[in-house]
Amino acid sequence: MLIPVLLFALGLVLLIKGGDWFVDGATGIAERFHVPEIIIGATVVSIGTTLPEVMVSATSALTGHGEIAYGNAIGSIICNTALIAAITVAVRPGPVDTKALKTPVLFFFGSAAIYVVNTYVTGYFGRPLGILLLAIFVVYLVVTVRQGFRNPVEAAAEEEETKEIEEKATKNSMGKDILLLVVGAALVAVGADLLVDNGTLIAQALGVPESVIALTFVALGTSLPELVTAITSLAKGHGALSLGNVIGANLFNLVLVSGMSMTLAPFYIPESSTLFGVNASLVLDIPLMLFVMAFLTLPALKTKKLSRYQGIVLLILYAAFCGIQFTM
Question: What integer pLDDT is reported at residue 95 of this predicted model?
Fold first, then answer.
């Protein structure tokens, strides 16, 4: 038991340091190319922080544990939104760039519609669906990057940013920013892997059911990169990067993580637990996933800002979700 605890602690240290370097590299690149932070957050940062989910889910699917791959993706989306984004919003609510926010939100709900219809109609996650989701992932990357360069930062803001860029250029070269990004992503991935593996061993030793581990411990473990990135971004004053990262990571969990798992090893929807006599995934997990994303993003698109009450409500929902998981 001592070794898993020590490796768990090591994973946490690697995550914190990796997250710090990753944010520095990402924001450096964003400033250098005049790309809005939320765009960088929704692409480069999201890919890096989603690597643990990809590795865990792909490995789980290939070893015949489709319930882990499924629970990890759904649970991570709920965790990212109702815990990580909620912390960001509760601590530092404020205006959002709705132009940059629309694309990942539209792609998420479009992909979710395909995912949900398939889940409720067939209950089977086959290879054709996986390939379709991976194709959506590629299209999203192309669209988002092109959008980022077509809609540069407002002229007034650019003038102020120019001074910051020149200042930063004297400290960090382009090569150093890229190195920080790559090394940071590697540390985040290794740290998350150590946390998930040893966190799961600790949970099993304490007698926690596997279905709960998949939707809570594994999901939280693989979402720790997003949590560390969110906290680091807040501390450095980059709230937009944090929000873009969370929304982008949610989309990637749906199209990249799930798509990769289905393509490698198709599986049926797990039925490890029930609620009111029905598969808990159909009456709790999937509806909650859709609700928390809608509650976070739709009001923001309308009012062009995030409010503290959204963060508080989402945190309460996440606590209730975890409580229900442990009592089923």
Answer: 80
Q: Tell me: the pLDDT tens digits for 212-263? A: 666 676 767 766 666 776 667 666 666 565 677 788 888 988 999 899 889 9
Nearest to 290 by CA among 242, 322, 241, 250: 250
Q: Which of 193, 181, 247 is nearest to 51 (CA)?
A: 193
> CB under 8 Å to 244, separation ≥6 — which residues?
37, 38, 39, 40, 41, 42, 45, 46, 100, 101, 104
Percent of the chain topping pLDDT 90 = 21
Q: What angle do CA 245, 251, 252 make, to 5 degrees?
A: 85
Q: How far is CA 221 from the centre of its chain?
A: 11
Rounded CA-CA distance 96/297 in Å is 10
> Whole-angstrom Cα distance, residue 309 to residue 306?
9
Q: Give me the phi and psi of 304, to 5 degrees please.
A: 65, 25
Q: Which residues contact 314 (CB under 8 A, 6 or more apart)?
A: 81, 82, 83, 85, 86, 89, 292, 295, 296
Contact between residue 253 and residue 47 where contact means Cβ atoms under 8 Å apart:
no
Q: What is the pLDDT of residues 254-298, one digit of tens each?
A: 999 899 889 988 888 877 677 777 887 888 889 999 999 999 999
* pLDDT at res. 320: 93
Which of 73, 72, 16, 51 is CA-nearest to residue 189?
Answer: 51
Q: Is 34 left (phi over 0), alpha (psi -120 to 50) or beta?
A: left
